Amino acid sequence: MNLHKLAAAVAVAALALSSAVLLSGCGGSAAKKDAGQTAPAKAAFRSVNTIKQSGEVVIGVFSDKAPFGYVDKNGKYQGYDIYLGDRLAKDLGVKAKYVSVEAANRVEYLKTGKVDIILANFTVTPERAQQVDFALPYMKVALGVVSPEKNLITTPEQLKGKTLIVAKGTTAETYFTKHYPQVKLLKFDQYTETYNALLDGRGDAFSTDNTEVLAWALKNKGFKVGITSLGDLDTIAPAVQKGNKELLDFINNDIKKLGQEQFFHKDYQATLASVYGSAVNPDDLVVEGGVVKK
The pTM is what? Predict the structure, then answer.
């Protein structure tokens, strides 16, 4: 009798173990399935019609990069990029909703659908063009380097063994990493941080778009742009999520039409002329109708 009970107990235990293994296996598959379902996916982009129905177009811009994109003392977005953003929204028949971005997260904000358009002084590069779709350009740009006048940097070679300040995710970071790896880079997320680091001497110089360092140096005594043009002549353009051809076509067609009325020269006069004065020829910076003239 005891042997029969023992045999029965063993059988029950074996059955329970087998069931547990099966359930465990099912649970593992379900967990894997759930994990796959909750993995972040690329957000669907909004069509032009969807944007119009919503009543607003969401545009990623800088909030600390005067005179191109910044927030004024009244909390309102201003600058060369904002001037264009307002016009694009008007031509879409909607309001512009501005979202602050940083150089390093511009691509991410498009990919995840946080914004419809990026208008954040976005330089066109082959690497970025693999991740986003660029519209026609509206500005020409190269790299510049600003430094204290008393220790002026006039060639990249002078930066060897010194510290150069850059913003993360910019063409300056890419350029110096590739061509001058011996230069120590001090990197920051925000442009406010980069200029503060230059002002308090944490770096010997700062590099970003020449258009911006020229504007900054004009407002900050004791600093000068010793290198006014470095690297290739690049362009700045609006960007949309990869594959959003409808919105891209709208922006391209609008830029062509705006060129007929010399819109970007008007933009320059409204937002940049007071900053640059006679130091910059507008034609060296402005691109009309998406056509780059050297």
Answer: 0.78
Structure tokens at 243: 């594959």
Task: Give the model confidence (pLDDT) of 236-248 as tens digits.
Answer: 999 999 999 999 9
Token digits of residue 183: 């230069």
Of the candidates 145, 147, 159, 163, which has an alpha carbon nearest to the alpha carbon of residue 199? Answer: 147
Q: Look at residue 155 in the predicted model and tell me its pLDDT.
A: 97
| Segments of the chain assigned E as strands | 56-61, 64-65, 69-71, 77-78, 95-100, 117-118, 132-134, 139-148, 163-167, 184-188, 205-209, 223-236, 239-241
- Give 241's strand partners: 132
- Strand-pair partners of 148: 223
- Tokens for 163, please give them: 């510290």
Residue 65, helix vs strand vs coil: strand
Domains of the chain: 48-138+237-284 (3.40.190.10), 141-234 (3.40.190.10)
Phi, psi of 206 (to 5 degrees): -135, 135
Beta strands 117-118 and 56-61: pairing type?
parallel
Among the residues of 152-272, which ranges form H helices? 171-179, 191-199, 210-219, 245-260, 263-271
pLDDT-above-90 percentage for the chain = 81
Residue 171 tokens read as: 């063409």
- Give percent of the chain with pLDDT exceeding 70: 85
Neighbouring CB atoms inside 10 A of 193's CB total: 16
End-to-end alpha-carbon separation of the chain, Å? 102
| 283 sits in which H/E element | none
CA distance linking residue 255 with residue 287, whole number of Å: 10
Q: Which tens digit of pLDDT belongs to each residue from 9-54?
A: 444 444 444 444 333 443 443 333 343 444 445 678 999 999 999 9
The H or E element spanning position 126 is: helix 126-129
Which amino acid is present at 196? N
